[in-house]
TrEMBL record:
One of its GO terms (cellular component) is mitochondrion. One of its GO terms (molecular function) is ribosomal large subunit binding. It comes from the Eukaryota. It holds the Pfam family RRF. GO terms for biological process: translation. Residues 97-256 form the Ribosome recycling factor domain. This is Ribosome-recycling factor, chloroplastic. Its main location: cytoplasm. The keyword tRNA processing does not apply.
Length: 259
């Protein structure tokens, strides 16, 4: 009896192995390695690479959606930040020069009359739009009007200004002699120069801060070495412009002190 049972089980196992081999042979979408106890399935080559590409794309998309990917930064962002800073610092220097030109010293300067407003024919206009101002000598200015009819209005405007000038007319132009500065006037001018210099420094530093704020936004997009280099370049620009402003103001103070 036991012998009969052993032969029956052996015959059943042989049939199961043959059936599994047929299944393996008929599966053309994949290659299978089979034995009597396990079945190993390896994807066909074409499907394997296709699935790999799709998995990679899916993973990349999930990383992008997760916020790991960085924002693309234009390659010229560094020069743009520096160019904006330079433009703002140059504007601060231009404003400083305009303010200093308004201050009267003991020397004649054509720009010292630019800020004077002249009223003519019911309109108020800067003097330099109504006349040409030139230097005759270190102590004398010449004011030549474009329209001779405005000569009297120009004279009144100059006399009314805080410059302390008393121009004389020769019929075609005004001649303004620059009087020597008093001690009180020198002190007042020196204070105005110092204030103008401080205003310029603050404007330059504000330009620096704007550039630094723009650089901070790039911390996650640029290498640290590039960030540090850009910050150093902005700092160097700031020091350069501040030194230039201070040198201009020192020259103006010297001019004031010489009367």
């Amino acid at each position: 009896m036991s012998g009969y049972l052993r032969r029956a089980f052996s015959y059943r196992n042989m049939l199961w192995v043959r059936a599994s081999r047929v299944v393996c042979a008929r599966d053309v979408s994949s290659v299978q390695m089979c034995d009597s106890s396990r079945v190993f399935t390896i994807p066909a080559e074409r499907n394997f690479f296709a699935e790999s590409r799709r998995a990679y794309a899916k993973g990349r998309k999930s990383r992008d959606e997760g916020g790991v990917s960085t924002i693309e930064v234009p390659p010229n962002v560094g020069p743009t930040i520096k160019a904006n800073a330079v433009s703002q610092m140059e504007a601060a220097m231009a404003a400083l020069s305009a303010e200093l030109s308004k201050l009267r010293t003991g020397r004649a300067s054509p720009g010292m009359l630019d800020h004077i407003i002249v009223e003519t024919s019911g309109l108020k206009m800067p003097l330099n739009r109504l006349a040409v101002v030139s230097v005759l000598d270190p102590k004398t200015l010449s004011v030549n009007p474009y329209d001779p009819e405005t000569l009297k209005q120009l004279e009144n405007a100059i006399v009314s200004s805080p410059l302390g000038l008393n121009p004389k007319s020769d019929g075609e132009r005004l001649i303004a002699v620059i009087p020597p500065l008093t001690k009180e006037h020198m002190q007042a001018m020196t204070k105005l120069v110092a204030k103008s210099c401080e205003d310029a420094r603050q404007s330059i530093r504000r330009a620096r801060q704007k550039a630094m704020d723009a650089i901070k936004k790039l911390y996650s997009s640029l290498p640290k070495d590039d960030i540090k280099r850009l910050e150093k370049e902005v700092d160097d620009l700031t020091k350069k412009f501040i030194k230039t402003a201070e040198d201009v103001c020192k020259a103006k103070e010297k001019e004031v002190s010489q009367g």
